Amino acid sequence: MTTTSNAATRRKPRGVPSPAGIFLRGFVKHPVMVGSVIPSSNRLIRKMLAPIDWANAKVVVEYGPGVGTFCRPILERLAPDAQLIVIDTNPDFIDYLNATILDSRFSAVHGSAADVERIVADHGQPHADYVLSGLPFSTLPSGVGDEIAAATQAVLRPGGAFLVYQFNPRVRDFLDRQFARIDHDMEWWNVPPAQLWWAWKD
User: Fold this and answer.
1) What pLDDT is recorded for position 139?
2) Closest Cα partner for 81 from 64, 109, 59?
3) Phi/psi at 39 (nearest 5 deg)?
4) How far is residue 10's CA from residue 164's CA, in Å, rounded to a whole number?
């Protein structure tokens, strides 16, 4: 389902750096939080989003949106009355997204994924239907990965899912402690090849 065209959801105001420039700057300044110097491939995006029931996806949250590689494909599929809330600790990414994505369904928040329950509530929502993350769990400070996984499990509605793409299989350790049903796949046509996880809240 396509509700908003790319032309309607993107712009590049004068003086705003290119997506590649912003992404590289973010990686250089915060390599532990960005995880990869290369944005995700289109194949990874399609496979990662494939399990989403878009007709019932009213609140989608993304951790670590970077330059919006997933934001625009999500907005293209999202219902007119739905919301996409993205959370990033890097203010450069948040400023870039706010300057380049024009869509009333889109909100970019400078903050921590561990605060997702409060952030979702601040947007007038009782829960999230899906949460997407490319955060590098294995390199986060001690305890932060577990805190994010627990907060995500709490904010999801029953039947919702935590969608995670990683380059290190250790993310399974964080998911196992919070989710009983986890699906897994690989996307080899990505640099580097990515581990894909769908953790369901039954």
Assistant:
1) 85
2) 59
3) -60, 160
4) 25
pTM: 0.83
Task: Give the whole-angstrom CA distance, residue 52 versus residue 45.
Answer: 12
- Of 89, 52, 88, residue with least CA distance to 68: 88
Query: Which residues lie closer than 8 Å to 67 by C-beta, 6 or more apart?
Result: 19, 22, 23, 26, 39, 93, 96, 97
Q: Phi first, then psi: what are they for 171, rounded to 5°? A: -60, -25
- The tokens of 3 are what? 């509700």
- What are the DSSP E strand ranges found in the chain? 59-63, 83-88, 106-110, 128-133, 156-166, 181-187, 194-200
Using an 8 Å Cβ cutoff, are 33 and 104 in contact?
Answer: no
Burial of 182 (0-12, 13-18, 19+ CB in 10 A): middle
Measured in degrees and rounded to the nearest 5, phi and psi for residue 157 equal: -75, 155
Span 142-197, pLDDT tens digits: 999 999 999 999 999 999 999 999 988 889 999 999 999 999 999 998 878 999 99
| Sign of the dihedral defined by the CA atoms of residues 24, 27, 28, 29, in that order | positive
pLDDT at 20 over 60: no
For 83-125, the DSSP string reads EEEEEES-HHHHHHHHHH---TTEEEEES-GGGHHHHHHHTT-
